[in-house]
Amino acid sequence: MRQILLATTNKGKLNDVREILKDADVEILSFLDFDDYPNVEETGKTFLENAELKVKAAFKQFGIPSIGDDSGLEAFQLNGEPGIFSARYAGENANDEENNLKLINKLNEYLEPHPGRFVCAAVYYDGKEFKSAVGEVRGNIIKNPRGYNGFGYDPLFIPNGYDITTAEMSHEEKNKISHRLNAFKELKKYL
User: Fold this and answer.
1) Which burial class, exposed, middle or buried, applies to 79 when counting CB atoms under 10 A from its CB (0-12, 13-18, 19+)?
2) I need a surface site. Which of 31, 72, 175, 188 has the fewest CB within 10 A?
3) Range 89-126 burial, b when 16+ CB lie within 10 A, else e
4) What pLDDT digit, counting tens, does each position of 135-183 carry?
5) Domain map of the chain by residue range?
6) Is the bond leading into 145 cis (omega within 30 degrees of zero)?
7) Class of domain 2-190
8) In three state form, how does the secondary structure of 79-147 look?
9) CA within 13 Å, CB half, 106
């Protein structure tokens, strides 16, 4: 069985990716399996560029074919904000609540509905070439947070075809439609 390194320390993301790739005949390692791992600064201008930075650094340090992703929320009325800055929208050390509040305040300038999408760019790198896939989930952003599951902008996002936010969904229900699932399912074809 081949080993592939997932460039993350996020246990939730690791579990999600292992579940998605469970029948791909690969053993998924992560930065959590090593004492020293690269701290990659996300200086790319797109989700794809940031994901490529992560896998390139992972492969360079460990010599193991690597996968990684970058993801976030895009509000169409805000020209794609917060986008690649989703995790630090309200500042470098901002928490989810502060990021959500900034988004709500900016959307107050526009009429409802507030269409948007969660986007995930997933990348595989073996030291020679990149393979990439992008997944998305479209829906509407609301101004009054609902639900306690998930993280980030989940309490503000209602996927198309649903009347509950992703924070009101169970972990299993959310993972059946997630942008990460869509991206890594596509990437699995390369593995």
Assistant:
1) exposed
2) 175
3) bbeeebebeebbebbbebbeeeeeebebbbbbbbbbbe
4) 999 999 999 999 998 789 999 999 999 999 999 999 889 889 999 999 9
5) 2-190
6) no
7) alpha beta
8) CCEEHHHHHHCCCCCCCHHHHHHHHHHHHCCCCCCEEEEEEEEEEEECCCCEEEEEEEEEEEECCCCCC
9) 19
